[in-house]
Structure prediction request, 156 residues.
Amino acid sequence: MRVLFMCTANSCRSILSEAMFNHLAPEGFEAVSSGSFPKGRVLPRSLTTLQQAGISIEGLSSKGNDAFESNPPDIVITVCDKAAGEACPVYFGPALKTHWGLADPSDVQGDESEVDAAFQATLKKIELRCREFLALPFGQLSRDELKRALDIIGTL
Prediction:
């Protein structure tokens, strides 16, 4: 199962989600990320946060949705409100879509410890949601049941 975490800039929340999901995922599951208007670079603080948590940053990059035109995802999870309001590209076709809104930790103003705490809190929320996702009984859920379960996870 291929999961796409989508944001606007693909530099923070979607990158953190991609990396955490892949860190936790068993064989057969893969996360990727993209942005509707990619920044073209990953925020250094995102990479540092992942490294501090012992999560690989190998291969992470800021890219647009067109990177997946030839290999569309099974599930699209938007993680920022701007991306949630945008239409997914037509080539995502029948992908199941859900929204897991996250406040942008890069918007936090304050000293280093406050900004670091915001990134750590965001990563913890992502970890909780990814663990709940991966614990779902996929073989027992209809498409509609999976959609409802994913929507609920987005509220955690």
Observations:
- The chain has five helices and four strands.
